[in-house]
Design goal:
- The complex is a heterotrimer of chains A (285), B (323) and C (323).
- Chain A is an all-alpha fold.
- The two termini of chain A are 25 Å apart.
- The chains are: A mainly alpha (285), B alpha/beta (323), C alpha/beta (323).
Chain lengths: 285, 323, 323
């Protein structure tokens, strides 16, 4: 009976989620990208670092469906391989940012007073530094590489999440059911985890789904500066910035990764909206 | 026999940018097991704060709360958790006092889980079903969400949650004021039945005087953090010895034609208890106040057996009124 | 006496995701000049919807006024152009809303807010409007010096007076007050009710008082209409409704409120809940909760029948008893 209920609850969330056509579309697009990333070695027609200078700067053709780049590498293959890096960087960086920022924000709001002031001033200081500069500084300190890029990009978004979560939690904390949780003997940690976080998810989800796009772009800028993922590892953002030099003559080098980034971001936004509604039992149909 | 609940010189002050707010200022009373003490007063009189300080949801600034002879002010950790089991609260707003993301059974089950009251989930489920039955919630609602239910049923969830730990003392903080009249009566009856069945002791906080008269054995009237009068319910409605109580009772509109009483219109409005001046806090609005009233320190004394009043001049003005 | 307002067979429904909400189902009411009508019902009974329809403030869509007419001083409100309606609103018909905390603009002084209404409807200079605004404040018992203060500097009761002052600024012929005292404390409620009584006496303002509180109705109303599930179940003079209650629902409302003068151990609540407005019973709307319900009540919809004089009731059982 109990297990049944747990399952029926998930089913309920899925039911609400699947009612939204746009959310389902977002999910479908994202799934395609994830499949591409997982099965990249099987799908990609060429290796990501297979150079063929004789075939450089090609347009769309049967041999190279999306053309080739300045070093004659197949753009389609690089995009497929690149989805591995970009998706991982985007999602993990956001996860880091949301988790750390969320924790800081909810503690600050829940405890209030001095803890709030101290935490928020720290966040303000972080906010005062442009996030790009912050990311560069972190990356420069840790050294280039995939993991360090994610950490750098993730941390640079911490202040935003901390602010968003703090304001959400401040409203929730006023609600009587938080006091009610205390009255039945629930400790602070438990109250935050069981009552406050689930009820302040909505703005976090929205912020996070927007954040993935930013993270991919920040990662790209880092690679551009030589601090992020190192060539020849394909990464959408990096492909975009390389292609920028050739945009007048060979627009495909920019358009193809651009469209990929756009598709992932919009699918995540649609997914995020759908998820936010589906997680809230108050939303009917 | 020692009294079940004894409150001695209880004070709760809050620091505000304008000064010290005396939300509860020197409150004393005793309450016997199985009885109901009604606390009435207008918004801002400190009645809700009083309930929360007694439960240790807010820490008292000064004073003692003796529960079964043991002072519980400042209880922390395991001792505090143990107290939660014995003392519970029912909240005013059935809409904001339950987590909108949990279904009915999860809400009622939460305290059971927290205190490991049941050995396994089957047991727990049985207990939740029992509790739902006790408060009159249909079984089929177990997996409904609060937003699907009306105020009366939500309030029943709140009552079931409070009963889950089998407390002996419950603070009812305006439990029916957000409900429609017909539903209000259902919930009041439920609270009375539960009291008889489980020998519960209630501290019943409300601003609704007809409700408080109906449910209480004794009534305590509060004004700006202080108790101005305390008497058995019937006696208070028959004989008011504090001008504020008198005005308060006269202001209740009666649902009868021609039964219009003469209302005592109070001047001004309840002020805020921030850094109050010594002397009677009601003096500024009182029809009978003298210079002396503004100086004399506050004291609640027993005017006749069981009838406490904070107005030392009660004889003077009640007689004047009679002339 | 001349009729100021006549509502005939008004029907309003809302299209929502859950289906069609039948908020008002054939409400017929009339109000003579200088009369005060109490419209009594519980949450969701359709009282506020009816009031908003008189002000033509129903959002269309999702709302739809699918039948009936509202005649104000003999003119059809539902056929008026938006411009005509704007001129009437605030000038001839005014409305007071329940929550004094949110009905005022926090960044403008109360004087300005009153003057604004005056200037909207009368061709007067700014200075003249301000002078009138101060007069209005004095009338509701607020010193004119306070006209330059902002809403947050006033207490709840004062804000409600300011709202009354705004509503009365243009000396409307009809005042609709939607739960004007529900958010206020009893002593403040007494002050506001006193003010409203004076208005009635001095200016002969016709009023519709929407409330769930039978005590408030008894104090100031001449006529009473009991509304349930979007239908008037009983109407009549105060005396007829209170002393010769005919409808079981009205009786239930009286029984649900604890009586101050009598002691009852248990209240007699009305069983069950308000019917779902998307799925109303086909017979009498109250049948599922009624103790005197018969087969006839479940299948047939009772018509409004006049017992004697003004007293009308929509109930088979009441008619049989009379007959």
């Amino acid at each position: 009976m109990k297990g049944n209920h747990k399952r029926s609850r998930l089913l309920g969330i899925w039911k609400r989620f699947s009612r939204s056509k746009t959310a389902m579309l977002g999910l479908a697009v994202l799934c395609i990208f994830i499949l591409l990333a997982v099965f990249a070695p099987l799908i990609a027609p060429y290796g990501y670092d297979e150079q063929n200078l004789r075939e450089a700067y090609q347009g769309i053709s049967m041999r190279h469906l999306l053309g080739t780049d300045n070093l004659g590498r197949d753009t389609l293959s690089r995009l497929i391989w690149g989805s591995r890096i970009s998706l991982v960087v985007g999602l993990l960086a956001v996860a880091i940012g949301a988790a750390v920022g969320g924790l800081i924000g909810s503690f600050a709001a829940f405890y209030g007073g001095r803890i709030d002031s101290v935490l928020m001033r720290v966040v303000d200081i972080m906010m005062a530094i442009p996030s790009m500069v912050l990311a560069i500084a972190i990356c420069a300190a840790l050294g280039p590489g995939l993991v360090n890029t994610m950490i750098a990009v993730g941390f640079s978004s911490v202040p935003t999440y901390a602010r968003v979560v703090r304001s959400a939690v401040l409203t929730i904390r006023q609600q009587e059911y938080i006091e009610a949780a205390g009255a039945i003997g629930s400790g602070n940690w438990r109250t935050i985890a069981k009552h406050i976080i689930p009820n302040s998810l909505a703005p976090i989800i929205v912020q996070a789904s927007l954040g993935v796009g930013n993270a991919i772009q920040s990662a790209a800028s880092m690679s551009f500066l030589g601090l992020g993922i190192q060539p020849p590892t394909p990464e959408w953002g990096a492909m975009l910035s390389t292609g920028r030099q050739f945009i007048r003559d060979y627009p495909m080098m920019v358009v193809a990764p651009g469209i990929c980034i756009m598709l992932v971001i919009s699918s995540l936004n649609l997914l995020g909206d759908g998820l936010r509604d589906a997680l809230d039992p108050r939303m009917k149909r | 026999m020692s009294d079940f609940l004894q409150v001695k010189h209880l004070k709760k002050y809050f620091k505000t940018p304008h000064g010290m707010l005396h939300a509860v200022d020197d409150v004393n009373f005793t309450l016997e097991r199985g009885k109901t003490l009604g606390v009435v007063g207008e918004s801002g009189c400190g009645k809700s704060t009083l309930g929360r300080v007694i439960l240790n949801l807010l820490e008292a600034t000064e004073g003692e709360v003796l529960f079964d002879g043991e002072n519980i002010v400042g209880a922390k950790g395991a001792r505090q958790k143990e107290l939660r089991k014995k003392m519970q609260i029912i909240f005013q707003d059935p809409f904001s006092s339950i987590d909108p993301r949990m279904c009915v059974s999860e809400i009622i089950e939460e305290p059971l889980q927290l205190f490991k009251m049941c050995s396994n989930s089957a047991d727990r489920e049985k207990r939740v079903a029992e509790l739902m039955d006790t408060v009159g919630l249909a079984k089929r609602l177990a997996y409904s969400y609060p937003h699907e239910l009306d105020g009366g049923r939500r309030q029943r969830i709140g009552i079931a949650r409070a009963l889950a730990l089998e407390p002996s003392f419950i603070v009812c903080d305006e439990p029916v004021s957000a409900l429609d009249v017909s539903i209000q009566a259902q919930v009041l009856n439920l609270l009375q039945d539960l009291q008889e069945e489980k020998k519960l002791t209630y501290l019943f906080i409300t601003h609704d005087l007809s409700v408080v008269k109906h449910i209480s054995d004794e009534i305590m009237v509060m004004y700006l953090g202080q108790v101005v009068e305390k008497a058995p319910a019937k006696e208070l409605f028959r004989d008011q010895r504090h001008p504020y109580t008198k005005a308060l009772l006269s202001a209740i509109p009666s649902a009868k034609v021609g039964g219009k009483k003469e209302r005592i219109l109070l001047r001004g409005e309840i002020s805020s208890p921030v850094d109050p001046k010594p002397g009677c806090r009601f003096a500024a609005r009182c029809l009978y106040a003298t210079e002396e009233c503004r100086k004399k320190p506050y004291e609640l004394f027993e005017a006749s057996p069981g009838h406490f009043v904070a107005c030392p001049r009660y004889k003077e003005w009640t007689e004047k009124k009679g002339e | 006496m001349e009729k100021i307002l006549e509502i005939k067979d008004l029907g309003i429904r809302f299209k929502t995701d859950d289906g069609i909400v039948n908020a008002v189902n054939g409400v017929t009411l009339e109000l003579k000049k200088g009369e005060v009508l109490g419209l009594v019902g519980e949450t969701g009974a359709g009282k506020t919807t009816t009031a908003l329809a008189i002000m033509r403030l129903i959002q269309i869509p999702p709302g739809e006024i699918y039948q009936g007419s509202i005649l104000f001083e003999g003119r059809e409100i539902l056929d008026m152009s938006d411009k005509e309606m704007q001129q009437i609103r605030g000038d001839k018909i005014s409305m007071i809303f329940q929550d004094p905390m949110t009905s005022l603009n926090p960044v403008r002084t109360v004087g300005e807010q009153i003057a604004e209404v005056i200037r909207l409807h009368q061709k007067v200079s700014a200075a003249e409007a301000m002078r009138k605004a101060c007069e209005m404040l004095e009338m509701v018992g607020i010193p004119a010096e306070r006209s330059g203060e902002y809403p947050h500097q006033f207490s709840g009761g004062m804000k409600q007076r300011v709202i009354i002052a705004i509503a009365l600024a243009c000396r409307p012929d009809l005042l609709i007050a939607d739960e004007p005292t529900t958010a206020l404390d009893v002593t403040i409620q007494a002050q506001v009710m006193d003010l409203m009584e004076n208005l009635k006496k001095e200016f002969g303002t016709s009023m519709i008082l929407i409330t769930h509180d039978l005590g408030v109705v008894a104090e100031i109303c001449d006529k009473v209409a009991i509304i349930y599930a979007g239908e008037i179940l009983e109407y009549g003079t105060l005396e007829e409704i209170y002393n010769h209650t005919a409808h079981p629902y009205t009786q239930g409302l009286f029984d649900s409120v604890p009586d101050l003068d009598e002691d009852v151990r248990r209240l007699k609540p009305i069983d069950g809940l308000m019917p779902d407005p998307t799925d109303l019973p086909s017979g009498c709307k109250f049948a599922p909760r009624c103790a005197r319900c018969t087969e006839q009540c479940r299948t047939m919809h009772p018509d409004m029948t006049v017992l004697n004089g003004n007293h009308g009731v929509r109930c088979f059982a009441a008619l049989n008893r009379e007959g």
